[in-house]
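seq:
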Amino acid sequence: MPLDLDGTLLRAFAETARRSGVRRAADALGRTQPAVSQQLRRLEDLVGRPLLVRSSSGVSLTREGELFLPYAERILALGREALSQVRDAAKPKGYRVGVIEELATEAYLRAVLARADALEPKVAILFVVDSWRIASEGFDRGDLDLVLSGPIPQITPRRRGAVRLAWAHSPGFDVQQRPLPIALSAAPCPWRDVLLDVLGRAGIVWRTAIEGGGLAAMWSAVKAGAALAAVIPATAPPDLSIIEASSAGLPDAPTIDIALHQQASPGLDEALDSIASALWDALLEDVLWT
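struct:
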């Protein structure tokens, strides 16, 4: 008749051998000492050999016990590994995706998630929405698997495109006032530099009305009439007025680069490639490219 080694009995034996005592093993297992002693006797009966020498000072392994212990530990480890593999296989693999605030609209994120839901095997996406600087630093540290942002210095993007910005303000804002109040992203930001270069070459006298503080703070200042902003038309709040630069005496708003960066993986990661494609394809639908 085949013999089956009960994991509960093996665990009692391994803990007793590891801790050199039945009482200490019982404490570690959350069982009573008599219960653990009974399990040890059952295991010895099953094996047909004494595995432990009991004395007033504790327990020690017999020669058979020393031979049996590595096998018991391997069986227990294999059991844990088997459970872990099966449980992990049922969980969707997680990916951290950085998206800059200017692009992370509800419509865009929904479009990405709709594409991701169709992937097999299933994946879980954690969006990290922040500024270009925070996204770039997260990618450099390896904290983010993908980043959709402006270009990151010294890193070749997986995809790259350009989008034309537009000037936007609240109704009633005077675009002729000088110095012209401007909303700016906090430095460092590649788009900030491009914007200031355009204003400088056009001879526009300007001042900073709001700087940094996140996109929500910037939108609040612009809606309140405190500043003019250069925006991506497709992602700007609907209650802002998009203006024609020439009719307002302004230079054309600059064209900015948008880049998709993907971490290099040691092997083929089809899921990561698919998420990257979902990010870019959704962007093509929701953002007006030049």
